[in-house]
Amino acid sequence: MPLEKHEYISNVWSDGLFDGKVVFCTGGNGSICSAQVRALVHLGADACIVGRNVEKTEKVAQDIATARPGSRVLGIGAVDVRSIDSLQKAIDTCVKELGGIDFLIAGAAGNFLAPLAQLSPNAFKSVIDIDVLGSYNVTKLALPHLVASAKKHNSSSSLPKKQPPNSPSTSTSSSRSSSSSGPPGPGGRIIYVSATIHYTGLPMQTHVAVAKAGVDALSNNVAIEYGPLGVTSNVIAPGPIAGTEGMDRLAKKQQSTPGGYPGKGIPLGRWGLIKEIADATVYLFSDAANYVTGSALVVDGGAWRTAGTG
Ligand code: HXC
């Protein structure tokens, strides 16, 4: 059964916010990334999601497309982010079919619980390669398209233009109606889906913590090098979000549901919701975040600040 809007996005965003935009997303068949893309599609974007599993990726794409009649959502399977060749084909298909790339979500990630003593070099490398090399690969391939998108956006900037003296002031209602037909909206934006575990460390997650620290560093450097070209690069760091693969791996299965919070460790007193990551995504891709780059938006109910003691 298709999800109701309020189940995957808050009511504060205007329909049509991302009309004409295209998002490319790795890890797009996963619980968090598919929700991020669903929200963007609902708000007007077209999308291309890629994943390793062909059947799952195509099915999730079809499901996301139900968020908005008329949307175009490509699901391209057999893409391993560790292989730049398989990614290149997917990027080319996205650009050919959907006309470009305005937003990138680098969300593909590997995870399993293993104490350091039992972590083989290949196991460590597998996660580093999926998270860090994979994020690098997709960034490298998407950047020319993101730069083009940013250039288009900046040349027809939605920043308020200076009114000439004595010109009639614009009323609230007319500015609303002009903006609804209107501004081209942002382009050239990247979100890396990271984590908070490397802020403190977490047993059995050495490989993931090291990988996520690398992803954060990648985002920060992209922000610095590509800021002058109008591209923004930020990290979303989800905390414990109920109903995700990551939580299923880290918590007992019955605890990882929304009602399964054991009552300790999170200042806001509950697990996060997947839609709260979608909302953070919409914010960072919207004009409301025009001056935000090189940042990490932590969405964790304050959990990491307590380091598990709260
Ligand atoms: C120890 C393990 C292992 C485990 C795999 N390996 N699972 N070692 N414990 N549970 C080892 C293997 O033995 C092998 O090493 C090496 O890892 C590679 O395994 P493969 O299965 O060949 O690798 P591959 O097919 O490349 O898959 C890599 C994978 C992948 C990382 C294991 O299957 C995967 O990522 N699955 C999870 C996807 C997922 O849940 N994504 C959501 C992430 S959530 P040897 O030495 O034997 O060759 C997330 C949130 C993070 O990231 C934040 C949390 C707070």
TrEMBL record:
Transferase in keyword set: no
Alphabetical UniProt keywords: NADP, Oxidoreductase
A Pfam family this chain is assigned to: adh_short
GO molecular function, one term: 2,4-dienoyl-CoA reductase (NADPH) activity
GO biological process: fatty acid catabolic process
GO cellular component: peroxisome
Entry-linked InterPro entries: DECR2-like, NAD(P)-bd_dom_sf, SDR_fam
UniProt feature, compositional bias: Low complexity: 168-182
Enzyme Commission number(s) of this protein: 1.3.1.124
Stretch list, region Disordered: 152-186
Keyword Hydrolase annotated: no
Reaction catalyzed: a (2E,4E)-dienoyl-CoA + NADPH + H(+) = a 4,5-saturated-(3E)-enoyl-CoA + NADP(+); a (2E,4Z)-dienoyl-CoA + NADPH + H(+) = a 4,5-saturated-(3E)-enoyl-CoA + NADP(+)
CDD domains xrefs: TER_DECR_SDR_a
Domain of life: Eukaryota
Protein name as annotated: 2,4-dienoyl-CoA reductase [(3E)-enoyl-CoA-producing]
Taxonomy of the source species: Eukaryota, Fungi, Dikarya, Ascomycota, Pezizomycotina
